[in-house]
Structure formats: C-alpha cells, structure tokens
Amino acid sequence: MHETSHGPKRPGWIEVSLWAPAAQAEAAADFLVRLTGRGVETSEGPDPEQDHLVKAFLDDGPGSAEQKRDVEEMVQRLKLQAAEPGAVRLEFTPLPDQDWSENWKRHFHPQEMAPGLWVAPPWEPMEAGPDYQVVLIDPGQAFGTGHHASTMLCLKRLARMRRKDRVPARLLDLGCGTGILALAALKLGAASALALDLDPLALEAARHNAELNRLAGRLEISSRKFEEVGESFPLILANLTALDLISLARPLARRLEPLGELVASGMMQGQDQGVRQALENEGLGFVERDSLGEWCSLVMAR
Hints:
Blueprint: E1 12-20, H1 22-36, E2 41-44, E3 52-59, H2 64-81, E4 89-96, H3 100-107, E5 111-114, E6 117-120, E7 133-136, H4 149-163, E8 170-174, H5 180-187, E9 192-196, H6 200-212, E10 219-222, E11 233-239, H7 242-247, H8 249-254, E12 256-268, H9 272-281, E13 285-292, E14 295-301
Parallel strand pairs: 6-7, 8-9, 8-11, 9-10, 11-12
Antiparallel strand pairs: 1-3, 1-4, 2-3, 5-6, 12-14, 13-14
Helix pairs in contact: 1-2
C-alpha cells in the first residue's frame, strides 16, 4: 500500500475566521482561495443573507505577516461595501501543531458536483451507481475538492460532454492540484490522462487520489513544465488564473489537436474577455462561456 504524508503535523497554522454578509463573504472566500492556494470552509449563520462565516488557513511561517496584511486590507475594502458597520469581522487564531486537513473532514461530505458526477472523501466513501460516477478525493494539503466554483465549472463541462458521448480517449489536466479533473474525466469515459503540476504537495495528493480511485495505471502525473510537453491532446483542462491562461495562450493552442477543446477556468467575471482575446489571437475559436458566482470558464476549440 502506498503511504502518503497527507496532513502531517506542521510547525503551525493561522486560522482566518471572517464573518460577513453573503456578498462580502463570497468575495472573501474567492480572495482567500487565491491567496492561500487551498480551499476554504464556509457556513451560514442564523440569517443566511447577513451572517456567513469563512475560514481559511495560513502557514505560520516567514510569509505569514505579509499574508495577514493582505487579508486585513481585503477586509477593509469589504467593510466599505457592507451596508452596516460591524457587519464584516476578522479574527486570526494561531493553531500550533494543528493539522489543517482534519478541519476538512468536518465539512467535506459527498456531494453531486454535476449531473451524474459525485465527489466524496475517502472517510465517507460512496459506490458508483448505474446513472452516476463517484470520484474519491483526499485533499491532503493540496487544493481541489470540486467545491470551488472554478473546479465545478470544469466538472459541469465534463458531465455535459459525457451526456453527448464526447469525452475523448486522452486528455491533459494542466495545474492538476489533487487530480480531481483528470480523475473525473477518466471516470466519465476517458481512457488515459496526463496531469501536470509544479507543486510537490499537489503531485503527492494526485498520486494518492489516483490510487484511491484505482486509476493509477491510467493517469500519468508529472512535474514537467507544460512548455516541455510535446504531445497534442483532444481535450485540455486548464483551471488556472487569468494571468496564467494569457501567458500560456500560445502553448495551449499548439498542444490542442484539430477539432480539440480547451476548457479554461479560474477566471473572475470580467477577466474572461482578456483570456478569450489571447486565445483567439493564437487561432482558437470561441465555443461557450459559463459562470458560477463570481467565476467563469471558457470553452475554446481549434
């Protein structure tokens, strides 16, 4: 059995707790995901519109002071948007020797992320049924459980492709994180996939999750740089940032097979026009735009 170091005891963490009305809480959650590269916990209070709690975890290391300042500046901006004084509140709590992944286990439960596609943690496993597939995900210390809107947009596109019997035999998951998108594609009909990420924790989590889903033999996981990949693909899943998508527009277009599709996600509303223009400049055509909350995705094709 493969052993992993997911969720090891670390020198310490800083728990970020932020209370805010719904709109400000959503903006804060998106900001904290981008800042930390990890998922966040969200919960509703007695008043669903006015009382939301967002929790995130910062490494208590050399960069923590700067990250705390970034969070405090974000909170000041949210306070200006809130209708009532005191509606946005922030608290930092040191958590020595705290394993942050244990916090996920209280909040991460099986959930249908797209029609016919469920994501479940290994501590609450589900069996696949005749009309749905289940992807088991242990996030470890990497980002990607399917709960973030940018990931969910990609999963919804995969589910639509499956309903039309259009999931190709081979695909690339660029910036794979926990491997959730590649694993979902394999569950939905792909024969093999290549998953790339530069983060060692992400690669470790992806390998662990491939084994959990008994798909290790069909998923190649690599730390190679995207520019070093010589293969072309009929489907590329790229859940990155708008800046990354723009900077990688040329290699993305070159690695897409004729008639292939690129699913580009990780953009905030309003950033998609710049990404679309960069991809169109490299010869790709627009197919579809989808959105969820403040996030959006593009499907482009050769």
